[in-house]
Design brief:
By secondary structure, the chain is α/β, with parallel strands linked by helices. It is built from 14 helices and 15 strands. It comes from Paraglaciecola polaris LMG 21857.
Length: about 475
């Protein structure tokens, strides 16, 4: 006979799958659940743990349990990541695709950022006010590495995730891209070859173009990166540094395996090539745990780990950091050439925000919300795009990568912009022509009428470009609850 807790759990799974219980809904407390089903606390706890193990519930510290639907698995009908197969070659970037201005909108599909409703404004405001009353508050020049209070809090925060960070080795910067820029200037010069993944975040390619660096793109694979081609590039093409994102890559949303991260760290040490790691999305994980960076496997200081709170907390804070490893002294010197420091009141406020546990609580809340939001975007797109379209389920982060066969996404982006819908065409993310039928959209916004209208227009135009009979305008009201 099936155990009572499994019987109840099976009923709940059916209700979740039929969407009779919404993703993101809070479950009753264990005591209330006992009363509701006339069961013991032991049975209730066994039921919740059974559901949690199968990814139908997620716990949040001191908050309770929340409903979720399991992420798509192989063979679930949602296509997995597939990438072009090509041979890597050095490219001198003469000109980048034109960056079209994006209208000021809270609901843009172009910029990877959190919905304003997911920003913890009240707690941040309290911490900022409290920071001005601290004993160590002053308006003098910043410490050479940045605020010690913030570095200590960041160190403790990452250590709790299983990633040991020495506060004395951290350097605070004006965001993650600032850290990446300083790292590139620290270890390379104009004309040097930098290895990047393919496709690669457009902002990184823009920086490399501005600095006059050449690029060699390393093909991505379903499970990460083509490490054979990477090692061949390190051996034979004069690569001076690598610039990679290991976790929830922008634009694809996929991640490297632990084995690949360890192998890349080892290659950096073996060939004495710095690995600059842009890890800005790491803490926005759709899985149960926050993944480790390449830096975790770095034994000899060849990895320069860069990150920030711009994507996880609020872009306006402009606080990032770097763990430069063996390049710390040179990195600090380069930072001093560019700036005399980072906004000190904001650093102190962020230190207090972390110390009070607000940041950990915020990450739990945001990741739970993003998991639900991700399934809503994917469900809408899978329903309304042509069958040939691929929507790649991300492991985390804020973006969705679409492959739209037969569609010129650069032209599509121009057509959408004329109707005030903004997306990023695939050609923005490579020096090659391999992604002209791909598209990246922001999924950080909570779906509402504006979002569904934009997505609906996107789907209609894709169907038109594929010369598929249009079944009429999409009823977006169906997706609003």
């Amino acid at each position: 006979m099936t155990a009572k807790y499994i019987q109840i759990a099976t009923q709940l799974i059916g209700q979740i799958e039929q969407q009779l219980i919404d993703s993101g809904a809070k479950m009753p407390s264990l005591r209330s659940f006992c009363q509701l089903h006339n069961i013991s606390m032991t049975t209730a706890l066994a039921c919740y743990r059974y559901l949690e193990k199968r990814d139908y519930l997620t716990p949040e510290y001191k908050k309770g349990y929340y409903v979720q639907r399991p992420l798509p698995q192989e063979g679930s009908g949602i296509k997995r990541h597939t990438f072009p197969v090509f041979k890597s070659a050095v490219c001198n970037i003469d000109k980048r695709p034109e960056q079209r201005p994006v209208a000021d909108s809270d609901y843009s599909l172009a910029t990877a950022q959190l919905d304003a409703k997911l920003i913890d404004r009240d707690a941040l405001a309290r911490c900022l006010k409290a920071a001005t009353k601290q004993a160590d508050f002053n308006l003098l020049y910043d410490e050479i590495n940045g605020s010690l209070a913030l570095r200590k809090q960041l160190s403790g925060h990452f250590t709790q995730q299983g990633f040991a960070v020495n506060a004395d080795e951290l350097v605070i910067t004006n965001g993650c891209l600032d850290a990446v820029l300083i790292a590139l200037e620290t270890v390379s010069q104009s004309g040097d070859v930098i290895a990047v993944s393919s496709p690669c975040y457009s902002g990184l390619l823009d920086i490399l173009t501005t600095l006059g660096r050449a690029v060699i793109e390393i093909p991505s694979t379903e499970h990460g990166m083509d490490l054979m081609q990477l090692e061949n590039a390190l051996k034979n093409t004069g690569v001076k540094a690598c610039l990679f994102t290991a976790n929830h890559q922008n634009p694809t949303g996929h991640s490297l395996s632990h084995q690949q991260k360890k192998a890349i760290a080892g290659m950096g040490a073996k060939y004495h090539v710095p690995i600059i790691e842009d890890d800005v999305f790491r803490e926005l994980s759709h899985q149960r745990t926050v993944p480790l960076p390449i830096k975790h496997y770095d034994q000899d200081g060849w990895v320069m780990w860069c990150a920030s709170v711009s994507k996880t907390l609020a872009p306006g804070l402009r606080i990032g950091w770097c763990l430069p490893g063996r390049f710390t002294d040179k990195f600090i010197q380069q930072r001093m050439v560019r700036t005399l420091g980072v906004n000190q009141p904001i650093q102190l406020a962020l230190a207090q925000y972390i110390a009070k546990g607000y940041y950990t609580r915020h990450l739990h809340k945001v990741n739970r919300a993003l998991r639900v939001i991700s399934t809503q975007y994917i469900s809408f797109l899978q329903t309304h795009l042509p069958p040939q379209a691929h929507v790649f389920p991300p492991s985390g982060g804020l973006v969705l990568w679409l492959k739209l066969p037969k569609v010129n996404t650069q032209k599509l982006a121009v057509t959408l912009a004329q109707q005030n819908v903004y997306v990023k065409a695939g050609n923005m993310f490579s020096t090659t022509t391999l992604y002209q039928d791909c598209l990246r959209i922001n999924m950080g916004n909570i779906p509402n009428q504006s979002i569904y209208t934009q997505l609906g227009l996107l789907c209609e135009l894709v169907c038109e470009q594929e010369t598929i009979d249009d079944a009429g305008p999409i009823d977006t009201d169906t997706y609003l609850r």
